[in-house]
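Re: folding output
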Amino acid sequence: MKYWTSLLFLLVSLTSFGQDGQRADLLRSDGKIYVVVGVILIIFLGIVVNMIRLERKLNRIEKNNGK
């Protein structure tokens, strides 16, 4: 499983090298780059909060099973 995941990330990163910066320049000139960064930040924070909640639930379940 680790092999396939590593291969997938490698292939995804290789495709990003071939893209030009025109779109980024256009977004930056329109001021929309801040919207893109904001959306990415909100998604990332949502994932982090979800992981923290899941970790707390797992710890609670592990404590209950240990008793």
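--- second protein (sequence, then structure) ---
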Amino acid sequence: MRKLLSLASCLLVAAPLAAQLQYSAGLVSASELRALAIGNGGGGLRTVPANTDLSAGWTLTSIASLASATTTVSFLHGGTGPTVVTIEESCTASYYPNQPASGATGPHWIRFVLRSSSPSGGRLRVSFTTDQLFGTTSGSASVDIGADGSDEFSAQPGQFLAQDYFVAIDSIGTPILIRTSAFARSAPTSRIRTTLSLRFEPATACTATSYGPGCGPSLSFGERFVGATKDVTFRITGAPPLALGVEAIGLVRANLPIPGTNCVLLTQPVVTLPLGIDSNGNGEITHPVPYDLPFTLDIQDVAVQSAGGSIVLITSDALEVVCR
């Protein structure tokens, strides 16, 4: 716990960066999209074929004299910022003597896919609102993250829901299946309009740049997503076996020679943490951090060894870690 709190105190004063993970997002119809309005003795079916690219947005409308059915799809993807998918379903139906009317959309299946060149993730906020609802109506909305046949989110007209999920993404891509529908039948007048929105906010992406001369050990960096957090790990190799270790965490670089050695302190520490080094001269520290926290830190490991009654400090190279 002390380790996590110490790192958190350092991260809170680290300068945030605006840019985030570069990732791609796509939106296609996974089934035929359908809108059907029937009224005044006639009607018309409007369709969009399966596998149609919807990333430019799409409006599908069927209109009769007493009814209408409309599906509106919007898609906003900025490349590094949030991606937003919005699907609005709207149906109306009015009664005229001996001329019943109805409007129906769906059921639609739409595939939303997220990809990144390296393993990453982010928060997916799913929300559902009902803007109009009266008369004889029905409908549904659901979201299946991973397209595994299990809905993580489902809603019915009349509900107002919002839920957050963590979504892992990689180069293969994570599919998210979206299902929506709406129906209105004259009795005497019915109207329904619902909106399903998905907003994906990417996690930070980290890079580590080695700098400065070490005097023996080497320092490396790794990150791994664990649910809604990210494990940031620093590993030292080539240190004196079973030596005492210290991890120095700073915000700026330094170049301070250590007296009596050819080693250099390469950061001005604001936090130091104990580091265990095993019999092979290896050690590591893992820090769980929020997946979307941007920061810049300088890290260097130091091995403390007793030699001839004296204390000797042996330093690794340093890493500048940028997560944005």
